Amino acid sequence: MDDIPVILVAAGRGERAGAGLPKQYRQICGKPLLWWALRSLLACEGLGPIQIVINPEFKTLHEDVVAEFNLPAAVSGGATRQASVLAGLEALGSGNVAHVMIHDAARPFVSNDLVKRLRQSLGEGNDGAIPVVAMTDTVKRCHEGLVVETLDRSTLARAQTPQAFGFHAILAAHRAVVGTELTDDAAVAETAGLKVAAVTGDEGNSKVTTAEDFEIAAKRLGRTEIRVGTGLDVHAFAPGDHVMLCGIRIEHEATLDGDSDADVGLHVLVDAMLGAMGAGDLGVHFPVGDPAWKGRASSDLVAVACDLMRERQVRLVHADITLICQKPRLAIHQPAMKQKVSDLLNVDPSRVNIKVTSTDGLGFTGRGEGIAGQAAVTLEVPVPWD
User: Fold this and answer.
1) Contact at 8 Å (CB) between 79 and 170?
2) pTM surpassing 0.70?
3) Of 128, 258, 249, whose CA–CA distance to 196 is shortest?
4) What dihedral angle (degrees, nearest 10) is formed by the CA atoms of 357, 358, 364, 370?
5) Which candidate in 75, 87, 115, 201 could, as Cys together with 131 as Cys, close a disulfide (CB 3.0–4.6 Å)?
6) 211, 227, 386, 204: which is closest to 312 by C-alpha?
7) In angstroms, rounded to a whole number, what is the distance separating the alpha carbons of residues 360 and 127?
8) Could you read off the pLDDT of 140-187 as tens digits, one per residue?
9) Does the domain spanning 224-382 belong to CATH 3.30.420.60?
10) What fold, for 4-221?
């Protein structure tokens, strides 16, 4: 059997992965998801060429991703996955094509063994072949929040891609269902009465769909390293009746002066998070005097840093914050501050530590002129692909 061309579908928007770029262009370990999908396909024997289908809105971004590969020019997809696959099939139709594989750019873990099984099944006279994984959990059918029925899982399986077909048969099947919406190419083949074999899939051939999937993929595709960042900040007292420390309002005879709510504890936390990511400091992201941050809660700064961590698939290992002042007395507030910071970071409280101390009357904090804070944050950071 000759090498089988592949249609790589990369025209979707991947909205379940959250706001931002379509997921195929989001980075994992320094490379976009699409790059990883290409890399896995190119490492398999018996495939080629690879015809990518894209959303033309992101053509420039796509060209940057594939610049290092020798690929046919991408074709524009449609409003649905089916329309995009059909566009890819039509683009291949001008050549002498016997078989085709269709793959989703959201699956970067295709193995050579899986491709071999699909090719072998096509060679046995089937119209198509798809990889499936057996259902191991009990499967329920639910309606409006209630369990309606327990299904026989022995007859059920999870379908994966790539899916392989006789080219002309699947092209005709796709042309025949234009205007309908089916969930995969095997479903299109079924409507045409094609004989589609189920071959053993690969649990490792997982699909990257959610933000959590990106974190899992980062651990599989690249090594991580531990990095530590530190933060240091001071704020002077000003007229007022309370201070904000680690997100907790504490009554006091003065407040802290600053553009935001001057929460020293959260400021040093964010500074340390940015430092461990190599992402600058507070002044870079929240410039002094910027009206956008005037009077804002410092918890908003933490949210920005957490968004940056998620974007980079970074995991917080531990945060250690020290607050330094003569007054107010803070020991009684430590449990509340610890819980608040862990909530803001969305981590277990065991990953957060809050320390409070005084300077025994020495220095500006000892004279009651303000509060100082420092933090050390430990992150697990994916190492960029060289």
Assistant:
1) no
2) no
3) 128
4) 60
5) 201
6) 211
7) 82
8) 999 999 999 999 999 999 999 999 999 999 999 999 999 888 999 999
9) no
10) Spore Coat Polysaccharide Biosynthesis Protein SpsA; Chain A (3.90.550)
